[in-house]
Amino acid sequence: MTPVLEAEGLGRRYGRQWALRDCTLALPGGQVIGLVGPNGAGKTTLLSLAVGLLRPTEGEVRVLGRRPRSPGTVAEVGFVAQDKPLYRNLTVAETLRMGAWLNPGWDAPGARDRITRIGLPMDQKVGKLSGGQRSQLALTVALSKRPKLLLLDEPVADLDPIARRDFLRTLMSEVAESGVTVVLSSHLLADVEKTCEFLVLLATSHVQLADDTETLLSQHRMVTGPRADAQSLFSAHTVVQADYAERQATLLVRGRAPINDPMWTVRPVSLEELALAYMSTSLPQEVAA
């Protein structure tokens, strides 16, 4: 199956600063994919390259098997930018009519139904809508293109908890009904953990993780034990993060080999713990016994 988004050595530089570097990915279709990382990690840059708003400095990216700016790709990709760029002086109804005019495959009945369900007044100016209402309208416009791939750049970052919950419910309902593939960029790890089946983690402008979330969680464990014995774990596993107290060490390790030493307590890792650990800039140094 052709990946919905594929990058090979992809990079984008602004002057001397790399916003994204050596990005190689193959994202599967039919899933909700979480794109996480700290501010400045390259999330927005990756999405902007994928929709053709930016051109790569190096490497290439293909979306639905084609270049981002090809006519077929533009028609099949929905995008909600972080600032949700809607025309503030248009009403909700005028925004939908403009969407129909710009998109040949526009789903007018579906757009009206979504607006009715979320309770947006058709005659209300976009500029008078709340943040949550603007987010719902932007999502409606993107979904009404009937895209095969939907890219969302921090769509709930500025929403209160209730508006965020409503937005995610609308999104997941659409995924269930239409099967659209979603790439959801977010720094809200709890939302990613609840909604995403595949995780891409960027840090320091590079891809640190890209895999099925269940696979990633099964590969990592949190272990706690005597600091003096930590050296043995460094030799047998990849230690992603290490925290030390005077006599105790707590380590996030990656590896399939079992840890059978009774001196160590082993537990599963949460997606939030996993993501936060990989957002650090470097792997921990080995500790002296």
TrEMBL record:
Residues 5-229 form the ABC transporter domain. InterPro entries: AAA+_ATPase, ABC_transporter-like_ATP-bd, ABC_Transporter_VariousFunc, P-loop_NTPase. Keywords: ATP-binding, Nucleotide-binding, Transport. The keyword Ubl conjugation does not apply. The keyword Nuclease does not apply. GO terms for molecular function: ATP binding; ATP hydrolysis activity. This is ABC transporter ATP-binding protein.
